[in-house]
Structure formats: structure tokens, C-alpha cells
Specification:
Structural class: alpha/beta
Order of helices and strands: HHHHHHHHHHEEEHEEHEHHHHEHEEEHH
Number of strands: 10
Strand order of the largest sheet: 6-7-8-3-9-10
Shape: elongated
Distance between the termini: 65 Å
Helix content: 55-70%
Strand content: 5-15%
Largest sheet: 6 strands, mixed
């Protein structure tokens, strides 16, 4: 872990070296004051050398101006270095997230991922800046202070340094407890972020069902968990700091008693004793810095461990020896495909089907039967445990993921639109498309006229998840996106099930145009929309239990026939 952390310093070696040099100079300047104090008390003041007293005082003033400039450099450029390292980690995390498979996001909440990208990386940034400074410079300061105090009186110095093991024992004893407490605190913050992200995203549903009290209850539950976790961490911090502060206070008592005895016995001069009392803080200061650094260290290490949890998640990778798919024709074949969710629950069992090039193949059946899973397996969003999926006779595991997915267009019930302009959302289908190609895609999706009626036209901002558009308008934008992509294979996953009849007719016209000449897999809830499919399969319990044309399935008088009659009866009652 340390090696991976240090790797982020490499692009900033120059500023890091200057930062460490500035911190070292600050430490050296810090030792000047006790040296000057001792010289004045033992020499200049007893000998009434007031001229040198003034010279020493002015020299100190100049050095303190230099110290001010150095501290500015440390605070400004050191933090800039930390922020740049944080930005690089954030970029690395985002790029890695983009490579993770569907299954990762099935099991990890968005809010928790966001917490790791913000709160955790901020703590890592602080550690990156202050860590080397505190460890290296404080250690050097302790060594220099030991040498200087030893030059005053070695035995008194050794007595003072004998207190250091007590500090180490307390720090090591309480370190693990504080680390665990901070880990629980971070987990609770991530939980709050996840709950908040969910509640804010669903605010319209909350208002529609007047369930604000329920959302407040859920949020307060996470909030209370956060308070409890923070209480534990603050308790650990309190024990850590109070114990260490007590031991450091003992230093003053030791110096007072031992130094007084040495002075009484004539083993130390009054000036040296006074200088030792002043100088002891030069030793206690870096010791306390290292002790207090433990809290920041725990925050940073905990944050980096959580950062590595994401970075170490296995990315989605092309199969070994995968080849480019090129332009596919769209002949799809499932051969005894089995898929298990999380290695426990069978979602599909020995599914076999064939979708001929340019044909429309429909999947119907009860919810949870495996229809959407079949759709997700074709673009290789998930890996099958057993069996084969072939397109144009090529096993999809032998094709690179990008080249395979470039041949597939997907229109889903739950449309995701980005918080940007209409044009940018359509361009997501093919980023290098011209304006005219975008307009043509919108025309074919039956939404161009509506867009042109808006004051800002294609530059209209649609809000988060397209909140400023109706369901039908969002659906047509998603269709325009696929028109622009122009893939040979099309997957329609309940693309019209959430729309009213009038809007559905308008969108169905666009979909019919979109399906023309493409191999199309349709998941449908309304059976009236797939009556004319070339073939229909009924999926239930992870298996294909019926298959044929609409007329064939009606004659079989099985599940499909029952579903159709039920919907026909329901429609006739409207």
C-alpha cells in the first residue's frame, strides 16, 4: 500500500523537495531562539554587552521574517501539491469506475462511491501534504533538540527522554481503537450520502405519495448512526489526546524537579538551566506534532484503504485473444445458456433461442422470469456460467467489448438522460456526428419539431435526468440517440410500457422505423405491441416455456394465450 501511495508523489518531486527543504529551514530557525537565549543569559547580559543583545534580537527578527515566508510556501504550495495528488487519484478512480462491470454497480450504492471520491480523497490529500513534513521534519527536530539539550546537560536530557517510551506505549495502545472508530465513522458518512442521494433523486415520488415523514425517518436513522460512530471516534480521540497530553505535562514536572536538583548541587548553571527550560518545548513540540499526526494518519490511511478497495475491484476486461467484431449482421443464437446471480440464484437455465438477421424477436412473461437478463447478456454486460452466445457465428466472448457494443443499440423503459443540452444527449449515440445527422435522427424519432419549438432549440438544457421533459419526450430522445448510433442489433426493453396510449402510438411509429432492417429483440409488457413479431418466446422461471408466432401461441392455449386474453379482457373493460 505504501508503494502505491508514494507513486502519486512522482509527478510532484520538485515541489515536494522544496516543501521539505522549507520545512527543514523552519525547524533550523526554531532552534536559534533557545541558542540565543542561552548565550544571552550566560554571556551577553552578565557581561553587559548590550550591543550584541540588540544584534542578536535583530537577527532573530530577520530570521522570523524568513520563517514567515517559508511557512507561507509550506502552507500554499504544500496544499497545492496535495490537491493535485487528490485530483490524480480522483481521475484514476473515475477512470477505473468506468471500466468496472455492471455487477459492481448492482452491489454498490452511488452515494457510497461518491463519498469515497470526495471525503476520503480529501483526507488522503491532507495526509499527502502533512505526512512527510510531520514525520521527516519532526523526527529531525527531535534529533537536533536531543543534541542541543545534551550539550547543555546530558544527564538531565536523558532523564527527560526517558519519558518518551510512555508516550509510545499510550499511542500504540490507543492507535488500533482510534483506527477502528474512524473506519466506522467513514462507513456511516457513506451511508448518509447514499440515503441522501436516494431521497433527493426520488423527491418527486416522495411528494406524490406524501411520504416525507418516512424519508426523514430513514435519513435520521443514518444520521443517528453517524452521531454514534462519531461519538466512538471522539471518545477514542479524547482518550488518545488526554493520555498523551498528561505524559507531556510530566516532562515539565521532570525538568522542574530534576533541573532544580542539578542546579542545587551545582551541576548546571542558572543560565543553562533557564535555557534548558525554554528549550524543552523545542523537543515537546515535534513530539506532540507526531502524536497529533496519528489522527490525521488514521484518517488518511483509512481513506486510502477505501480508495484501494475500488481501485482493486476487477475491471471489465476483453477476453483473452479477443478480436474486433467489425460490422455485424445480427444473427443471434443462445445455446444452453445458464446465468446465476452472485453464484447462488439461477436467473437463466439452459436457454436456447435463435434470432435471425433482420427479424423481430419478442420476449414476454412474468416479471423476474429472466427477460431483461437475456437482453443484458447479448452486449456482454454479464458473463454466462455455462453455454454460448453467438452473433454471426462468433462467440461473443471472443469479441472485444467495445466493438461488440458498437453493434448494439438499447432503448429501455428507464431512460437516463444527462444534465446537459438536448443536442449533447442525442450526440451520446455517436459523438462525432454532424449537426445535420443529429437533426435527422431527431426527425426520425418524431421529436425534431418539438425541439425547434423551444426558445433555445437543440441547446435547451433538460435538467437532471431530463426532469424538464415528459416521459414520451425523454423516450423519443433516447430513440434519436439510437438512430444516430445506427446499430445492426436493437434491444427494446419495455420501451413503451410506462407511456399512455396516445404517446405510445407516436413512439411506436418511431420504433417501427428504428427496427426496420435491424435484428430486434423486444421485451414487451403490452402484448398488442408485439403481435406482428416474427417470433415470440415466453420466459418464465429462467426458462423458455413457449415459443412461436402470435397465432401459434394462441393456438397452443398456454401461458401466452392466457396473458393475451387477460390483457384483451382488461382493455375491453376500459
Amino acid at each position: 500500500m505504501l508503494k502505491r501511495f508514494l507513486a502519486y508523489y512522482k509527478p510532484h518531486k520538485k515541489i515536494f523537495a522544496l516543501d521539505m527543504l522549507a520545512a527543514l529551514l523552519v525547524s533550523l530557525i526554531g532552534i536559534v531562539y533557545p541558542v540565543v537565549t542561552r548565550t544571552m543569559l550566560n554571556d551577553l547580559i552578565p557581561n553587559r554587552n548590550y550591543r550584541m543583545v540588540v544584534v542578536f534580537g535583530l537577527t532573530l527578527l530577520v530570521l522570523y521574517f524568513c520563517k514567515m515566508a517559508l511557512n507561507y510556501f509550506i502552507q500554499y504550495y504544500g496544499h497545492v501539491m496535495g490537491v493535485r495528488m487528490q485530483a490524480q487519484m480522483r481521475s484514476d478512480m473515475f477512470n477505473h469506475l468506468e471500466k468496472l462491470p455492471y455487477s459492481y454497480f448492482d452491489n454498490h450504492e452511488t452515494g457510497k462511491i461518491m463519498s469515497r471520491m470526495t471525503n476520503d480523497l480529501m483526507d488522503i490529500s491532507e495526509l499527502a501534504h502533512h505526512g512527510p513534513e510531520n514525520i521527516i521534519i519532526s523526527s529531525l527536530s527531535i534529533i537536533m533538540s536531543f543534541c542541543y539539550l545534551s550539550s547543555i546537560n546530558i544527564w538531565l536530557t536523558l532523564i527527560v527522554f526517558a519519558c518518551v517510551p510512555f508516550l509510545l506505549i499510550i499511542s500504540m495502545t490507543l492507535r488500533k481503537r482510534m483506527k477502528n472508530a474512524f473506519m466506522r465513522s467513514r462507513t456511516s458518512i457513506a451511508q448518509i450520502n447514499a440515503s441522501l442521494e436516494s431521497s433527493i433523486s426520488g423527491i418527486r415520488v416522495t411528494k406524490a405519495f406524501t411520504n416525507a415523514d418516512k424519508e426523514r425517518e430513514k435519513f435520521e436513522e443514518g444520521n443517528e448512526m453517524y452521531v454514534d460512530a462519531r461519538k466512538d471516534s471522539y471518545k477514542a480521540m479524547g482518550q488518545f489526546h488526554s493520555g498523551n497530553t498528561f505524559v507531556t505535562d510530566i516532562f515539565n514536572v521532570v525538568v522542574l524537579i530534576a533541573g532544580g536538583l542539578f542546579l542545587y548541587n551545582g551541576d548546571i548553571q542558572f543560565g543553562d538551566y533557564s535555557a534548558f527550560v525554554v528549550s524543552i518545548h523545542m523537543f515537546i513540540g515535534p513530539v506532540m506534532t507526531l502524536i497529533n499526526f496519528m489522527e490525521q494518519y488514521q484518517n488518511g490511511v483509512t481513506g486510502f484503504e477505501r480508495f484501494l478497495e475500488i481501485m482493486d475491484a476487477d475491471p471489465e476486461a476483453d477476453p483473452e485473444n479477443a478480436v474486433e467484431a467489425g460490422k455485424l449482421d445480427g444473427h443471434i443464437e443462445f445455446r444452453n445458456v445458464t446465468y446465476t446471480y452472485d453464484g447462488e440464484k439461477d436467473v437463466l437455465r439452459n436457454v436456447s433461442l435463435t434470432i435471425e438477421k433482420g427479424k423481430k424477436f419478442a420476449l414476454v412473461g412474468p416479471s423476474g422470469g429472466g427477460k431483461t437478463t437475456i437482453c443484458h447478456l447479448i452486449p456482454h454486460f454479464y458473463n454466462v456460467e455455462d453455454g454460448q452466445i453467438l452473433i454471426d457465428g462468433k462467440e461473443i466472448h471472443s469479441l472485444t467489448l467495445d466493438s461488440l457494443r458498437r453493434n448494439i443499440g438499447i432503448v429501455q423503459q428507464d431512460i437516463y438522460l444527462f444534465n446537459s443540452s438536448i443536442k449533447e444527449n442525442i450526440l451520446y449515440g455517436r459523438l462525432d456526428a454532424t449537426d445535420e445527422e443529429v437533426y435527422e435522427a431527431a426527425r426520425r424519432a418524431n421529436i425534431h419539431d418539438y425541439i425547434m419549438s423551444l426558445p433555445e432549440g437543440y441547446d435547451t438544457q433538460i435538467g437532471e435526468r431530463g426532469v424538464r421533459l415528459s416521459g414520451g419526450q425523454k423516450q423519443r430522445l433516447s430513440i434519436a440517440r439510437v438512430f444516430l448510433k445506427n446499430p445492426p442489433i436493437l434491444i427494446l426493453d419495455e420501451a413503451t410500457s410506462a407511456l399512455d396510449n396516445t404517446t405510445e402510438i407516436l413512439i411506436q411509429t418511431a420504433l417501427d422505423d428504428l427496427c426496420h432492417g435491424r435484428t430486434t429483440l423486444v421485451v414487451a409488457h403490452r402484448l398488442s405491441t408485439i403481435k406482428n413479431a416474427d417470433e415470440i418466446a415466453v420466459v418464465s422461471g429462467g426458462r423458455i416455456v413457449e415459443q412461436g408466432t402470435h397465432d401459434d401461441l394462441i393456438k397452443q392455449d398456454g401461458i401466452y394465450s392466457d396473458l393475451y386474453k387477460l390483457q384483451f379482457r382488461a382493455n375491453s373493460m376500459l
